[in-house]
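Hi U.,

Before I forget, here's the chain from the pilot set. I'm dumping it here mostly so it's searchable later in email.
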Amino acid sequence: MTTILVVDDLPENLRLMRKLLSPQGFRVLVAADAESALALAAQEMPRLLLVDLRLGAGTMTGYELARRIRRLPGGAQAVVLALSGGAVLEDEALSRAAGFDGFILKPFDFASFAGVLKGYLEKK
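Structure:
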């Protein structure tokens, strides 16, 4: 079973992602801030991380979290995808520079979302 860590500062988004991904056969871990996500990833590196770029009032952004994840054991092999609901043109380029494997704009099509994730997993 593939483990996914979802990092988002909005509790409703975390609930929605768990509700959407668990029935698709994913083991879903959630973190409401970058610090918690980093601690979870250090304990058990998930195969896939979905990281909101703007994590509210936390001490680090999604960009910084991606850079730190990549430095952890197993972090280079994980698939790390950026999620953004308020993206501007340079967000995608900045996310690639920070070490993200891909960029998903919210809202996304729920029907195809699991397939999109599986496609990223197959590539890496």
